[in-house]
Structure formats: structure tokens, C-alpha cells
Amino acid sequence: MRNSTLFAYYDLSRAPATFDIITFLFIAEIERIDRGLDEIELRILANSGGGFRSAAHRGLEHVQGSNPAVDDLQQRLENILLPAANLMPSCARAIFISNREEAQRLFDPADENFPNQYSVESPKISYFESSILIAQHMGKRLGSLRAPFEAVERAGRWLDENTNGKRAIVITIRDLPYHPLRNSNIKAWSEFAKSLDSSDFCPVIVRDTEHVGSVVRPEFAGFPICDEAALDLEFRMALYESAYLNLAVSGGPILLCMCNNATRYIRFKMLAEQNPHGGPALYYSIGLEPGSSFSHATTFQELVWRNDDYPVIRDAFNVMVERIETQKFPRQRELPSVIDTAKRFSVGGNNVDAEKICRLILQSQPDNMEIAYILATVLQNTDRHMEALTVLEKLRARAGENPAILVPTVTSLFLTGRAQEARELADEVLGLVGEDRQLLQWIGRILLQMGQDSAGRIALIKCIQLNPEDSSPHVDLARHYHSNNLSVPRAIEHFDKALEIGQPDPLLPLELADCHSRLGHFEVAAALMESTLDATGFNALNSLIPMGIVQRLANRESRSIETFEKALKTIRDLLEGEDENDTAYTDVLAGEAQTLLLLGRPEEARACLARARQLRSLDTYHYDPKFYLSNTPQRIDRLRRIVDGRDILIFCHGPTITNMDSWWPKFQEFDTCLFGVNKFSVFESGFLKEFGRLIDVNIRSHHQDIKPSIDQVEEFLSRPNNNVMFTAHWAMNKIGGAGIDREAFETRFDEKLIYFGAADGWLPASPNQPLHMKQGNALSTFLTMAAIGKPKRIFIFGADGGVDATNSRPTHYGANSDEFRLNVDTEKRDTMSATLRVDAAMFDIYSPINLLAAEYLFDLTPPEIYNVSPGSALKSITCIDYAQAFDLMADQ
User: Fold this and answer.
1) What's the predicted TM-score (pTM) here?
2) Which helix (H) or strand (E) element contains residue 699?
3) What is the largest CA-CA distance in the chain?
4) Is 820 within 8 Å of 747 (Cβ atoms)?
């Protein structure tokens, strides 16, 4: 038996407990036929722990409020996954393996296993339609699912009893509380059902399983309701086979029709308006051009890319009926060209399949420049820029100075550390692209990525001039300006313009809301966020946590609490039944702790973090090289040697630090470690100068701060004394395009650098991102890093938290000094004053989160922290005056 059986592993550690198993079986059947085997044995393998896909593979940064509970997942196993095997005629048996050790015992690598290269230790998944399309291009024969004969007989009897011999139009309704934009338009479907010729057609309504047994909606009163189909998968398939035509919105159940060539169907709402959970890229990734239908479908199987409004349903129905009555028998749809398929995969981000197709073509057509070009973009998309350069240089040698080849070459040169070559080539490209808007926008984005901001902006502005109705350059410029507090008003202008023109991202208003919150427009920001989440149903944690914070700052406290409670429920649903040994589990615990802090429940937050620390030892923490330098734990040890258990004095740029002009002669008597925020040179050339004292630790968190001060930074790091600088990988990447070799910089000052990350999503610092800080301002990060340095105490000076723009005082200490390297005009002064006040508010929210996470992640005894800044707007830290600070240090 083993020699004639394909063992198909549907592994729930990676695969979802959904109707996706239908596509999986369809693809497995293609493999069975291609390998010449007799039968399939479906093996559904449980994940460790709860048995189902873990938080890590549901997507921690994109978790929805619709995470099914373990009981729901168990029902799906029993009612969808296991019965699905009965829909594939060649599937001889299906077994559920609840124990991965047992699965390992059963698994034999010498067997005919599917997916290819599957193993229990390294499971693979294969349930995407792209695999079907590739198989077609390879000339493989397709199979089909079918309802069992007994189920077909039962469905026939049900139809006979309920349709009076009329042709059944089966309408599958989606009406669920999660992802509401994907729901059926109940009014439209009711109107359509009532409009059917009752002498010829009989509408049959199939409801969601969740609604079985409940009162039928009044819109469908009087129509046959087939709840049996919602409860019995085999019966559902049989009903779909027996129907004259099946109609449904995009969703799981319609996959039964799509994998059964004996059915007729129309699938609506392929791109639901304002739906953030899907878009054109999703369909390109499986090789489907929006507006078309699947190539493995028949002519009696149609996709409609518009919402399910009544006129759309009616017209699509009429066209299909006429086609059925004219053609009588379905025909196979045409296969797209292999080059078009490769392009679609690439555009959709399906780099694995795009590369597979490209390399297959290049084996027989090595001189195919179009395919080679697609391969180069795929290599870039997968961060293999050295390989991409090899392909691009070959293309360049054959095509000459073609800007379409030169533009991606600039990208790979820059990202392989050849910044000078990238800059020179970028200058050449700007003279070649002319008015090609696509290439102009592409090079504009690259220039911004390289830190050549002025040139990048000019390129994008030219794109706008060439086509004022294109919103995408406005979005690019808005996101660029959004990265700098001083240019946030310009970001708002471009976001507003993009929304006015119209653009495809329904979540773009959330980015606009963040801009408004950065300027203290909390009411505007809260309203934008609430309306966007209401319109899209996008209740992801990445949206809920920021919205709750903005609601709090907008004095909408009851709504804020409600939002945080919703987030907490989502997190706890996510944790339910998960394997505590999964590396993602502790990250979710950290997120739960953050949410509990925001709800004012610190003891529960501490319990979460203590549990996370218990599950993960320090030596198992993951320092992702995309964000951190190698040997980061050793760098932290060096920081602690520099601090040496002393008091840390953090110097900020608030005007009240001018008090140090008179107080430093007294403070300098103490043995302290000095931390300087950003422009440390103004402190060294100011009150520290007379005593020859230097800053020990500096933070430079933004490339626009580093670039004009690079000589100061290099001088600081070149000093023979022990010192260290905190910065971020993204900031150092940006300075590479400004004539600074980042890799050479990192090599030269290796041991003196520590990189941190920005915890922009809903997760705070956690074992998988230990130095990712919630970004209130530079101080909120610096303060946490100071605590990780294990000082005796921390004293903060000049943390004023905002200066009135109408006041004649400078916004920053040393702002008039040549060492400051930043000119703030009147317009920017207003913006800076606003953002400083917002920074203070964010500091008070984020610093307690950062500090508590660091306490547990790094086994810290929390130091006493004092804010020595008279009249400070920061309220989360005990505020004392200079005399009190002196007395504390004197008393030791």
C-alpha cells in the first residue's frame, strides 16, 4: 500500500483550520496523478500545545479580533478538515495525529510525501492557488473534488422536497461579526432572490454555521433555508453540485465549488471596498489578474470583482444563464502566458513561485531579458542584492544604459554597501528617466531611502506635476515628511491630498491620524481612527492600542478603556490554548502586560512579565540582525562596565538645564556617569567645558540629526576613553546615502555602538525584540537604556517637555550655538513646540511600559529615577529641584 500512496500532511502548526484544506487536497491530487500513485492518505497533524496554528503563524503584527477559540477550532477539525477527505475520490483515508512524536514515528522520508520536502521538524504548507497555476504551466493534469454518491442522493431528495422541481439557485450568505466588510449585502441578495422568475428558478439560502437554529432573517422569509448544508460538508458539496447555479461572496465555502469542475458558480466581492484584509497584491501573489477568473476554472465558473449590489448580481446572473443555455457544456479557460504569471507573482510578493518560474524559463531561454529582469527584482525583494547585482550587470551589458535596469541597480548597490556608486548612478539615472513617471517615482523612493532627501523629493514632486491625479507620489512624500517632527504639517498636506484624489489603502487615514496626534490634534486624530476602524472593521491590535492611547490623550477616557479592554480580550483569545514553549508566546505575554498597564493594572502586568521571563532565559533572546548589531548582549555588558553602578545624570536640551551653569561646579564633585541626549556637544562646550568633563553615553536616534553632526559623532566615538552611542539601524542606513559608508562606520566604531529598535506595532520590548522601545521621544528610549546599564540612581536634567512658541526663549538649550547644527525658523518653532508637548504626553505613557519590560527582561533592580527639571511637563517621574538632587548625591 505504501508504494502506491501519497501521504498528504496538512500540518496545523503552519496551516489554518479552515476551508483552505479544500485547495490543499486539490493540489495534492495533482501531485498524486503526476507521480502515478493510486490513492491519497490525508494526515492532519496537530500542532504542539493547543493543537492548532500558533500565534507566530497567525501573524503577531496583524492579529484580528476574530481569532477563533480552541473549541471553535476543534469543531472545524471535526466538521471541515476530516470530512474534506471524503470529497476527494482518490483519498482512501484520513487520520488525525494528535501527537507530534507519533507523527514522527509514522513519517518516513522515503515515502511519497506531500508537500514536497515536508518533514515533521520542518513542516511545509501548500494550499495556495499559485501551485495550481504552476502545475498547469508544467503540463500536469488536474483532478477534481466530488461529493460522495450518498450525499448527492440526499441533496437530490432535499431539492425535490423544497424546490418544486424548479432549478435551484443556491445563495451562500456570509453574515458574521468579524471582517464585516466581507459580509453579504443582505438587502441586495434578498432583492435578487425575490426578482427571480418563480416559475423557473427557486432560490435556496445557505446560512453561516453560526446561525443554524436561529430565527431566519426577515429578508429571506419564505425561501427554502438549507441549514443541513451548513452542518454537513458532504451534503454542502452535493448541494453545490446539484444546483443550477451557485452564488456567493468571496469566502471559505465557495472553495468547494472552485475545486469541483462539476459545479457552476459566480463568486462576488473579490475586492471588497474599504477592506484592509485583502487587495490586488493578494491576488497577484497567486497569479490571478484582478478582473479575470481562475485558469483552472470552467466557463461556467466566474469571478466578479465588484461588490454584491443588486444590479451587479442581476447582470452577472443573466450573463451566466445565457452562457449556460448557449454553450450547454463548460469549456476550460485559457492559461495566461508564463511570463505574465511570473510578473503577477512578483508584483504580488510571491517571490518563491516567481523565482521558480523564472529559473524554469531561463533553463530553456537563457537570453530572455524580460524574465531575467523579473528574477532580479525577486532577488531584491528577498534581500539577495549581491545575486541581483550579478543579474542586473549582465542585463546592463546587453541593454546599455537603460534606466529601467539602472534604477533597481541603484537599490542593490546601496544595500550592498556601495553607497558612493549608488549615488553616482542615481545622479545619472535622474538625467535618463525623463518623464517616465513609474521610473521617476521609483528612483525618488530610492533616493529617500538613501537619505538624499532633497533629490528624492524633487523626483516625487515632478511625478505629481506630470500626473496630478495620481495619489501615490503624495503618499510617498507624506510618509517621508511623517518621519520628522518638524515636517509633519507637510505630511498632513500630502495625506489630505492623497485622500482627496482617492487611493486604494483604506487604512491610510490611520497614518494621517498619527500626524495629527504628533501635533497635539488629539480630537482630530481620535475621530479619524474611530471612523476608519468602524468603516473597515480593522480591529487589529496594531490599530487598537494606538487608538486607545490617542483616545486617552483626547480625554475620551471611557472609550479608551473600552478600546484597551477589547485589545486585552483579543490578546487573551490569542493566548488560549497556545503552546507556552512557542517563542511567540512570550511576546504576546509582553503585549498583554503592556495593555494591563494601560488599563491601570500594574500587578497583573508584572505577573505576565514574570511568566514571560520564567519561560525564556536571557541566552534565548533573539536579536534580529535587521535591527541589532551582532553580540548585542556583550555590548550591554560593556555599557554596564562604563556605568559601573554609579549615578547616571541624563542631560536633555530643555531650557531649564541652564541652571547647570551655576550648579555644575557642585555636581562635578560627584563620581557620576554622564548621558547626553542627541546634541551632546552643546553640553561639553557649555557648562562642562570649564572642568574638562566629557559625555560618556550619547543617543542619536534620527538620521537628520546625525548627518549634519557626523563630525561630532566621529570625534566622540574616536575618543580613547570608554564611551558608547545608542542609535538605530534604520537611521544609520539613511546616512549611507549622504556620503557616509555605514558598514565602514560600524566596523570602525564597532564596540562603541548599540542599536535599538522602535516598537511601532502593538508589541513592546519582548524576548524576540529585547531592545525595541515604545517611542515617546529620544528620552524615553535613553532612560530605559540607562536603566539597563544598572546604575545606582538616575537623575534627569532639562526634561522640560515643551516650550511655549510665543516665548522668546529658545526651544532647546544651546540652540544658538554653532554646536547645535539645527536652525529652527518661526514656522518650525511652532511645530517644534507642539511636538515637544506631545512628546511629553507620550513619554508619560510609554516610559512606564519600557521600564517595566526592561526590569523583567534584564533582571533589573529598578533604580530610583528623579526628574530635576523645574516646572517639567513630565508627570510620570518624581520631580525634584537642583538642591534636592544635590543633597541626595551628597548623602550617597
Assistant:
1) 0.85
2) strand 697-699
3) 101
4) no
Strand pairing partners for 425? none
Shared domain for 168 and 126, answered yes or no, is no
CATH of residue 213: 3.40.50.2000
Nearest by Cα to 371 from 137, 143, 586? 137
pLDDT tens per residue, range 459-483: 999 999 999 999 999 999 999 999 8
Q: Are residues 14 and 111 in the same domain?
A: yes
- Do 701 and 837 share a domain, yes or no? yes
Report the C-alpha gap between 388 and 379 in whole angstroms: 5
Specify whether 192 is located in the same domain as 300.
yes
Identify residue 249 by its one-letter amino acid code: V
Report, as ranges of residue numbers, the positions in the chain whose pLDDT lies below 70: 1-2, 49-50, 53-69, 274, 276-278, 577-578, 736-739, 802-812, 814-829, 892
Instruction: State yes or no: cis peptide before 115, omega within 30 of 0.
Output: yes
Domain end residue (candidates: 84, 105, 131) = 131
- What pLDDT is attached to residue 62? 43
Residue 400 located in a structural domain = no
Q: Would you say how long the chain is, in residues?
A: 892
- The grid coordinates of residue 618 equal 536571557
What was the pLDDT predicted at 538?
78
pLDDT of residue 821: 53
605 within some domain: no
Cα–Cα distance, 316 to 169 (Å, whole number): 13
Residues of the domain holding 779: 619-891
Collapsed DSSP state (helix, strand, coil) of residue 679: coil
- Cα 264 to Cα 247: distance, rounded to the nearest angstrom: 9
Distance CA 56, CA 852 (A): 24
745 and 820, same domain (yes or no): yes
Closest CA to 238 of 345, 325, 155: 155
C-alpha distances in Å from residue 486, one per residue of 152, 449, 483, 827, 829: 68, 19, 9, 9, 8
* The predicted structure's pLDDT at residue 60: 42
Residues 72 and 174 placed together within one structural domain of the fold: no
Let me know: does 647 contact 791? Beta carbons within 8 Å.
yes
In the β-sheet with 878-879, what is the strand arrangement from edge to edge? 772-773, 753-758, 724-728, 697-699, 672-677, 647-651, 793-797, 864-868, 878-879
Report the alpha-carbon distance of residue 198 to residue 169 in Å, rounded: 11
What is the predicted pLDDT for the residue at 149?
A: 97
The string of pLDDT tens digits covering residues 780-839 is 999 999 999 999 999 999 998 865 544 545 566 766 666 665 665 555 667 777 888 888
Of 583, 571, 741, the closest CA to residue 63 belongs to: 571
Residue 165 belongs to a domain:
yes
Q: Give me the number of domains the chain comprises.
A: 3
pLDDT at residue 56 in the model? 47
Do 847 and 784 contact (CB within 8 A), yes or no? yes
| Residue 840: all three cell numbers together | 511629553
pLDDT reported for residue 809 = 58
How far apart CA 649 and CA 868 sit, in angstroms, is 10
Using CA atoms, how far apart are residues 673 and 440, in angstroms rounded to an integer? 49
Whether 124 and 196 share a structural domain:
no
CA distance 491 to 447: 18
**Amino acid identity of 737?**
G
Torsion angle, alpha carbons of 599, 602, 604, 607, to 10: 140
The C-alpha R_g of the chain, in whole angstroms, comes to: 31
Among residues 877, 852, 866, the alpha carbon closest in space to that of 788 is found at 852
377, 455, 458, 450: which is closest to 420 by C-alpha? 450
User: Are residues 812 and 771 part of one domain?
Assistant: yes
CA torsion sign for 633, 637, 639, 640 is positive
Beta bridge partners of 793: 864
Q: What is the predicted pLDDT for the residue at 824? A: 55
CA angle 493, 495, 499 (to 5 degrees): 115
In a domain, residue 816? The reply is yes
Last residue of one domain, picked from the residues 260, 292, 327? 327
Report residue 598 CA to chain centroid gap.
23
CA distance 268 to 148: 27
